[in-house]
Write the structure tokens for this entry.
Amino acid sequence: MAQTILIVDDEPDIIEIVKYNLEKSGYQVVTATSGPKAIQAAHAGKPDLIVLDIMLPGMDGLEVCAALRRDFDFPIILLTARDSETDKIVGLEMGADDYVTKPFSPRELLARIKAVLRRAKTNTTPGKCLRVNDLELDPVKHQAKRAGELLLLTAKEFALLEFFMRHAGAALTRASILDHVWGFDYYGDPRTVDVHIRRLREKVETDPHHPQRITTVAGLGYRLEETP
């Protein structure tokens, strides 16, 4: 069954060329031209991935991303007309999985879509349940808990926590986290890791400002402590 991609952009020319190239590659395509229509389409069709422009009229793409992340964990790729570090960081903090800067080539966007979908599929491969201190993770049910309380994680946060739990106690470099969670073909900034760690800490730590579960290893990366 073909995977469904939701394209959200208020520029008809961009929608047309992206839609053409995705359908040519075997994807089903749904389109929306505003934030509210995108949210409506996502709830109605539950797409496999969303390509979401930031510069939308009225409700911008960042607001849409944040709203969708409250209900869904499907991958989101942001389109931004500005090569702005702030846009990218804020987008990642809102729960986006990747971003592409306009102008872009259809081939580049298609490559990003395939890479993100491939990582999403790999990250949800069933396996045995994991337990580290008061953290539990069930790859089959795609559920994670802290002290018995269900955690509402995005797909990327879930994959990140699973990687930490499979290597509990080990110091993990940003490069190794990118390779295993984002994939060798990831095009983005290594600081993506820091943004997602901050988001994950907000959900697994009792006090995100003084983390005891996911700690920083100075000059290297991060570690999931086995005895917080």
Q: What stands out?
A: The longest strand covers residues 4-8. Helices lie at 12-24, 35-45, 61-69, 85-93, 106-123, 155-166, 174-182, 192-204. The first helix runs from residue 12 to 24.
